[in-house]
Design goal:
CATH superfamily: 2,3-Dihydroxybiphenyl 1,2-Dioxygenase, domain 1
Number of domains: 1
CATH class: Alpha Beta
Bound molecules: zinc ion
Strand content: 25-35%
Structural class: alpha+beta
């Protein structure tokens, strides 16, 4: 069989609590761009908020389903337990200060595979990391329309950590997806083995698999829902569907997610994986300048807009776009 490889992570989707708090944290603290404000197509009473670089390019988009009042989850076995963003080398002092002044819980810095890592949690307890990636070939530019100066800005994902219930079986699936094992090391807290795999792309390529026991993760607020990997187009996606089915995975039919096409399967370690096409992208229903500025619905939900909008909580006032944030951005932008 001809060898095939995904080029890396397409997006990560997670569960949040209060959508306004979520919007504020990811745009005003982390400095990501809200690139799409829509609803969960499978449950239109819930938002689906996408944060990323200027256009939400593949490998940058962290997305949330905010369920107000839903119980807190617990990251653990059978889940993706950390989502890591790439930041420039030398920027972690800035981030430690910035996150320390926010509602984030900031953990001690560590070194992992020779890179400095700053672990933290968002206000819902969602485990995140900043990885200081030097010698970076990433084509991703940080979003400069927010409060974080470009010299410190997030450049999409670095990778994800999976706490698989069946790490060897998960490794086999990663192998089917074209990931290569690049090394392993022990976790500083409990000695668990962390095995690193990388895809053949130029950004968002890393998947770490933890060989760690209980506790089992519990889905809910503050946990990852699924991890999506990239397919260049629908033809490649179809080839992935065949290849994964041949490898014993139960893969869903293709779903139209408006901004990409998706197939899903639950890998044997318990984690929901998706393969998403790179296109058509977030500018399919609004211009790049306008991304995220208003609620967008796919054509098959547009007739229901009034009912859908009235059932959603308001996001008004979540982001103060008049004063401090813009002033800080201006200062940061002209600091040279
Ligand atoms: Zn997805």
């Amino acid at each position: 069989m001809q060898s095939m490889s995904t080029t890396g992570i397409h997006h990560v989707s997670a569960v949040a609590g209060d959508p306004r708090e979520n919007l504020r944290f990811y745009t005003e603290v982390l400095g990501l761009r809200l690139v799409k404000r829509t609803v969960n197509f499978d449950d239109t009473t819930t938002y689906h908020l996408y944060y990323g670089d200027e256009t939400g390019s593949p490998g940058t988009a962290l997305t949330f389903f905010p369920f107000e009042g839903t119980r807190a989850g617990r990251p653990g076995r059978g889940q993706a337990v950390a989502t890591a963003f790439a930041v420039p080398a030398g920027s972690l002092d800035y981030w430690e200060d910035r996150l320390g002044e926010s509602e984030a819980t900031v953990h001690e810095r560590r070194t992992r595979f020779d890179a400095a890592v700053l672990p933290f949690e968002d206000p819902d307890g969602q485990p995140l990391e900043l990885v200081a990636a030097d010698g970076d070939d990433s084509p991703i530019e940080p979003w400069t329309g927010g409060p974080v100066p470009a010299e410190y800005g997030i450049r999409g994902f670095f990778g994800v950590t999976l706490h698989s219930a069946e790490p060897d079986a998960t490794a086999n699936v990663l192998d089917v997806l074209g990931f290569q094992r690049v090394g392993s090391e022990s976790e500083p807290d409990d000695g668990a083995e962390r095995v690193r795999y990388a895809a053949a792309g130029d950004h968002a390529t890393v998947v770490d698999v933890l060989h760690r026991g209980p506790p089992r993760g519990r889905p809910g607020v503050g946990t990852v829902h699924h991890v999506a990997f990239r397919a260049a187009d629908e033809e490649e996606q179809l080839a992935w569907r065949d290849r994964l089915s041949d490898a014993g995975q139960f893969v869903t039919p293709q779903k139209d997610r408006q901004y990409f096409r998706s197939i899903y399967f639950r890998e044997p370690g318990g984690i929901l994986f998706e393969i998403a096409t790179d296109g058509p992208g977030f500018d399919v229903d609004e211009s790049v300048d306008e991304l995220g500025s208003e609620l967008r619905l796919p054509s098959w939900l547009e007739d229901d807009r009034e009912r859908i909008e009235s059932a959603l909580p308001s996001l008004d006032g979540a982001v103060d776009d008049s004063t401090d944030a813009k002033a800080t951005a201006a200062d940061g932008g002209t600091g040279e």
